[in-house]
Amino acid sequence: MKTYDHSGPAFATLRVHPWTVAQGNPGCRYRDFKETPALVRSSLEDFLPWAAWPCVDTFYRLVEWLNGPDSILESNDCAFEGPQTNPTPRVAKDLEATGRLMILWRQLPRNLSRAGTEALKGAIHRHLAGLDTGLVHAAVGITVCPVRYVTLPLPEARQAGTQLMLSFWAWGDTDEEVMGNLDRTFQGLREALGAAAREVGDSFRRVGPPAGPGRRLISLPSMLDPPGRTPSRSG
């Protein structure tokens, strides 16, 4: 699977966790799916119009696992735009779907270690790169985003940490092809996130936060490098 370091969109304000009002849509609110898992399938507004597609069920199961009892990660934001005219001329397909998923360590103090976030990013790259190597028209870009963890009982200056934004793209000439590639992407993300969390989580338990940044292993060729565009809507 194609995976690369993505510069990501510039957020208008510093992100906080937990966040309150979404940029561009004050009707969207943060929901803690660890406490309310039943809301996953009814509250992700961007995905609801596409709920009949199998890939959306795969995404829901990914979010349910991330926030469930078997995960040491959690999610706190996502966005999605379904198939539309492909704006990426380097990809010779008519349609594109794109979105993002924000993830963080469930034990919030871990997110204050930039090295720990970088190690998780590097592990996700490694595991994704070994999965579904026949999937050509899809990609995952990973961005380290600054975040302030406002619920930690620390001075504001010491609440500064990071989280990962997983941006995803899938292309095709028909809705069916796009959504099929997206389904494979979400399946790969579920497998890679589980393996990466176990790998880096074990290093935390053995020796504390990793001492240095994770190693970037995979880079998309320029002809398939997406143009740095993800939806702005949060949900």
Structural overview:
The model is unreliable at 207-235 (pLDDT under 50). This protein has one domain (3-224). With 235 residues, the chain is α/β, with parallel strands linked by helices. It is globular and about 50 Å long. Strand 3 (21-22) and strand 4 form a beta hairpin. The chain has helices spanning 40-43, 54-66, 114-129, 175-207; strands at residues 3-5, 15-17, 21-22, 25-29, 73-85, 95-105, 138-149, 160-172. The longest helix is centred in the C-terminal third of the chain and has 33 residues, at 175-207. The protein is 28% helix and 26% strand. The two termini are 26 Å apart. Strands 1, 2, 5, 6, 7 and 8 form a six-stranded mixed β-sheet that branches. Strands 3-4 form a two-stranded antiparallel ribbon.
Structural class from helices and strands? alpha/beta
Largest sheet: 6 strands, mixed
Give me the count of strands: 8
Categorize the overall geometry: globular
* Helical fraction: 25-40%
Multimeric status of the protein: single chain
Low-pLDDT segments: 207-235
> Number of helix segments?
4
Proportion of residues in β-strands? 25-35%
Q: How many domains?
A: 1
Element order: H for helix, E for strand: EEEEHHEEHEEH
Radius of gyration: 17 Å
CA-to-CA gap between the ends? Answer: 26 Å
| Overall pLDDT score | 86
Descriptors:
alpha/beta, single chain, 235 residues, globular, 6-stranded mixed beta sheet
Task: Tell me briefly what this model is.
The protein has 4 helices and 8 strands, in the order E-E-E-E-H-H-E-E-H-E-E-H. It has 235 residues and is of the alpha/beta class.
